[in-house]
Recover the amino acids of this structure.
């Protein structure tokens, strides 16, 4: 027997994408760890436990760390995302900086050279990051098929229009295209709150 609701939802998703609309994913503060720092924080040879698979080979783990800023103010239970990376990276919101008393730059993921410092505390030890703390830039993940159909290329910058209770427009949103991505725009909690957006909300790409 056919799942009518699933069929209806699929049709709505296709029509939405044809109209240039994409889904929003709201990113909470999180941490990516290097193998060395994972060992220090959780113990030699420790392996992260998968809680939920995301996109692009990433997953949310069941492990958490505590962030400690220069003022010794802290934010607890910050989730670790896997798998391990070459370099440790901490992604927080502007609001978080007021608690931690840090001033990280707005950067694309992976661009951490000269970024903010912080201390990470885990159950087995602590790590002093000399750099690696950023506020992630607004960005859009696209499949190659979607990008081709809409005339968009990897690393393009587009504007995004938000309708609803707080209509606005985000300018200069970076686009990343890869075959293991879903079609989705990622913003942090500050941007989501400012525009009245939640996970699953729809926004429209406006090409420059």
């Amino acid at each position: 027997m056919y799942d009518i609701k699933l069929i209806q939802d699929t049709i709505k998703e296709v029509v939405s994408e044809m109209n240039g609309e994409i889904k929003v994913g709201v990113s909470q503060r999180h941490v990516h760890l290097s193998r060395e720092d994972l060992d220090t924080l959780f113990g030699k040879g420790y392996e992260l436990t998968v809680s939920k698979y995301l996109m692009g080979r990433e997953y949310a783990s069941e492990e958490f760390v505590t962030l400690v800023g220069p003022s010794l103010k802290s934010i607890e239970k910050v989730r670790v995302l896997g798998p391990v990376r070459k370099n440790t990276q901490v992604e927080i919101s502007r609001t978080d900086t007021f608690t931690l008393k840090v001033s990280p730059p707005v950067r694309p993921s992976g661009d951490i050279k000269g970024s903010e410092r912080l201390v990470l505390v885990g159950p087995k030890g602590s790590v002093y990051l000399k750099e690696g703390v950023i506020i992630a830039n607004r960005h859009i993940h696209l499949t190659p098929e979607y990008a081709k159909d809409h005339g968009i290329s990897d690393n393009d910058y587009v504007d995004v229009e938000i309708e609803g209770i707080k209509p606005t427009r985000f300018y200069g949103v970076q686009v990343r295209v890869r075959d293991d991505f879903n079609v989705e725009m990622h913003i942090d909690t500050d941007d989501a709150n400012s525009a009245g957006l939640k996970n699953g909300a729809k926004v429209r790409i406006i090409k420059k």
Remarks:
- The longest strand covers residues 74-85.
- The helical segments are 4-18, 35-42, 94-100, 144-149, 189-195.
- The radius of gyration is 18 Å.
- Confidence is low (pLDDT under 50) at residues 5-15.
